[in-house]
Design brief:
With 464 residues, the chain is mainly beta. It folds into 3 domains: 16-212, Methanol Dehydrogenase, Chain A (8 Propeller), CATH 2.140.10.30; 215-325, no CATH class; 333-412. Helix content is 2%, strand content 49%. The protein has 2 helices and 42 strands. The longest helix has 7 residues, at 262-268. It is globular and about 65 Å long.
């Protein structure tokens, strides 16, 4: 392990890597747990012997928490001293550790166990509950938030409260966001979220929780088939469906208005006959005024044929415009990842994939629905906006695109080696890269690496 200005080099190691805390990186995981835990801020390596894959690190990097033998185990990295917290009821069928609060006081997770007849009647099922460890009191408490499937908590800045999504087993995909006090493991507020509404959940600096649907005025967009009278949200699957209408629903799941997509689809040359199935994935701009539309039109009646298209909706003006599908074949794009979905956006520009070989970084201006070339010269694999410009990755370098479109390489792979994966830390401060001289490919896109990799950790806070 070697520290350089603004980066840390680890390796060679075998297996996968995963961020388990703000500054704590698990490396060398071959499915049985990591081989080491790295405190990247202090450039310290700790043994991970006996630590499983699903592990959560303390915010200061001093300890990790995980499940072992039906109990929560906290291991101090210096000296490997362990503390065990048993669950309140025996024999949980499944348990996880989800998060450690930023103030270091609370650890939160989920436990699932068989239901009682009173809970499920004659059906065989299991129920999940949230659990909280208060390290000041040394107690593990199962929450009073009811049963369901729980997401990963989003903590208030002070770490004294958290917001968590709860999905009812029978109510899926309906869910609700709960504000809860981990000190008492009780709920303090509820925010219902009908359907796949994907609300924006934020905490103010003063510790106020806001949960709102992403559309202007609290709307959500729902692709709809007016012929078959069914809606389809969130994913693309091979079911008979043609989303020729986009419905806008209120937080109460009532129809506000709808837009007919057929004129825009026909003008762009997207097939919309009954033999073609049509799927649309809408993504809201951060200000809720625009929707990015990414979709597919697929012919299953004869030889398989697919058109993929992209466009935008001006929600205020209630207009839809699409680009012709030929230049935008999303299946030919390398996968693009973002530290946060909103990192695709900067004002009216949203980053969109570009076909392999085009050597262009492209954004769509949703006001004009025209592509804008932000940079060129390399095959861009991933990109996201930052305060300093557009961060990008390729097989051979990580760099930054400035306001003039000029590229600046921040880190280059040594000759004969290739970057094969890019994983941002949860805080967004660090970017980890695996490089190897033995990549293997699938359709021109790097999908994995050989038996060993060298890990580079880039500190994005040092970029000037």
């Amino acid at each position: 392990m070697a520290r350089h200005e603004g980066r840390l080099t680890i390796g060679p190691v075998q297996g996968l890597m995963r961020w388990v805390g703000p500054n704590l990186l698990a490396v060398g995981d071959n499915g049985l747990g990591p081989s080491a835990l790295i405190d990247v801020e202090r450039a310290k390596r700790f043994s991970a012997d006996g630590v499983p894959t699903f592990t959560v690190g303390a915010p200061d990097g001093s300890a990790v928490a995980f499940i072992r033998d039906d109990a929560v185990v906290i291991r101090r990295l210096r000296g490997s001293r362990e503390t065990r917290y048993a669950f309140n009821h025996p024999d949980p069928t499944w348990a996880t550790v989800s998060s450690w609060s930023p103030n270091g006081r609370f650890i939160v997770g989920e436990v699932r166990r068989p239901s009682t007849p009173a809970q499920s009647g004659s059906r065989a099922m299991s129920v999940s509950r949230l659990w909280v460890i208060d390290l000041e009191t040394g107690k593990l408490t199962e929450s009073d938030l009811g049963e369901g499937t729980f997401g990963i908590p989003q903590w208030s800045p002070a770490g004294d409260r958290a917001a968590i999504q709860r999905t009812l087993e029978e109510g899926w995909p309906d869910s609700e966001w709960l504000e809860f006090d981990p000190a008492t493991a009780t709920q303090t507020a509820t925010f219902p979220c009908p359907g796949r509404s994907y609300p924006r959940v934020t905490w103010s600096a003063a510790g106020r929780l806001e949960v709102r649907l992403p559309g202007e005025g609290g709307l959500r967009a729902q692709p709809y088939d007016p012929v078959r009278k069914i809606s389809f949200e969130g994913i693309i699957a091979q079911v008979e469906f043609a989303a020729t209408e986009l419905r806008f629903l209120t937080a109460g799941d009532e129809l506000s208005f709808s837009l007919d997509l057929r004129p825009a689809l026909e003008e762009a040359g997207v097939p919309v006959t009954m033999e073609w199935w049509l799927y649309v994935q809408p993504s809201w701009s951060p200000d809720g005024r625009y929707l990015l539309l990414e979709g597919q039109s697929i012919n299953f009646a004869g030889p398989l044929e697919r058109h993929e298209f992209i466009g935008a909706v001006d929600v205020t003006a209630r207009t839809v415009r699409l680009l012709p599908p030929a230049p935008f074949k999303i299946s030919e794009y390398p996968a693009m990842s973002f530290i946060h979905p909103d990192a695709r956006w900067s004002g009216n520009l949203v980053l969109v994939p570009s076909p392999v070989g085009d050597k262009q970084l492209v954004a769509l201006d949703v006001t004009t629905v025209k592509p804008v070339i932000m940079a060129s010269g390399v095959d861009f694999a991933e990109a996201w906006w930052t305060e300093k410009g557009i961060m990008y990755t390729t097989e051979s370098e990580v760099g930054l695109v400035g306001s003039t479109g000029a590229r600046r390489a921040l880190l280059a792979a040594p000759k004969g080696q290739t970057f094969t994966s890019f994983i941002p830390s949860n805080s967004g401060r660090y970017l980890t890269l695996a490089r190897t001289d033995r990549p293997f490919r699938d359709g021109g896109v790097v999908t994995g690496a050989g038996p060993t990799v060298t890990v580079e950790v880039l500190d994005l806070a040092t970029i000037r």
